[in-house]
């Protein structure tokens, strides 16, 4: 139960797992009503209700009418805030990840991007509201990792600018997704 901007870099190097394990290399923090890039900026809706807590649960949403993405909820119940799992490296059970991500040309692309990461882990809408430790596990990195931050990927408006450097990643990691600005 902390500010998503504090939790985000702490997740880098951690392993998240279902029947597949992924080492997290890139995340984005979202700060609810304080963040114009957040789904919860304008308040609670049926879609974003899980983002309002409790902390330590998943907020899973459908995007572009075809992909699932997952956030770890951080702030206390009633206050929206979470960290988007943006990219990772599959570190266990590659075979299962490959069956879920048949379009991936290389193992590098199995979990490179939020929708790919969710798909590799088998995360879908049924995970929305799931407590970490139930159907999904999170293990901290055994040692601190170096990280950097900058604007979020694909977020339009003020929330995608340098005013909100809320994307965190492990520099030089080949599984980090390429930066692209949001569409105006």
TrEMBL record:
Coiled-coil ranges per the record?
Answer: none
Q: Which HAMAP family match?
A: 3MGH (MF_00527)
Record's protein name: Putative 3-methyladenine DNA glycosylase
Please provide the record's keywords in A-Z order: DNA damage, DNA repair, Glycosidase, Hydrolase
MF GO annotations:
alkylbase DNA N-glycosylase activity; DNA binding
The UniProt entry's sequence similarity note says: Belongs to the DNA glycosylase MPG family.
- InterPro entries associated with the record: Formyl_transferase-like_C_sf, MPG, MPG_sf
User: Which source organism?
Assistant: Flaviflexus salsibiostraticola
Give the highest taxon in the source lineage: Bacteria
> Which Enzyme Commission number(s) are listed?
3.2.2.-
Gene Ontology terms describing biological process: base-excision repair
